[in-house]
Design a protein that fits this description.
Radius of gyration: 16 Å
Number of domains: 1
Order of helices and strands: HHHHHHH
Largest sheet: none
Number of strands: 0
Structural class: mainly alpha
Length: 120
Amino acid sequence: MHHSASLKIVMKSASDYVQKNRYISGFYKVGSLEILKRKLPPKRIEEFIEFEVGILVYFFKQLQKRKKLKMQKPEVLSGILRSFFLVCFHKEDLGEDVFKEVKDFYIEMISNGLTRAGKS
């Protein structure tokens, strides 16, 4: 299987999961995340973001060591992936009739743009 195909599968599965998970999607659909951000101390929010980004950075560094991803700052790769998931919570804003195509096109662009040619 090509590296890009593997990444597409992961992105599709993960995006479907976060969209269907009522707890995760609930934060974004009703603005609960914004309320939570206002109530939590800024230091706590910063720690959470650093933790989340840290996991992704580690993951991307491992894939880069194995020559499966293009060389780019892991923090940039993390930002690309995190921004993709934010898009997944804006189905109504983007248009429900085209959302699946938009999401699939994002997955295609990101997976093809980030991976190196070759097979896993």
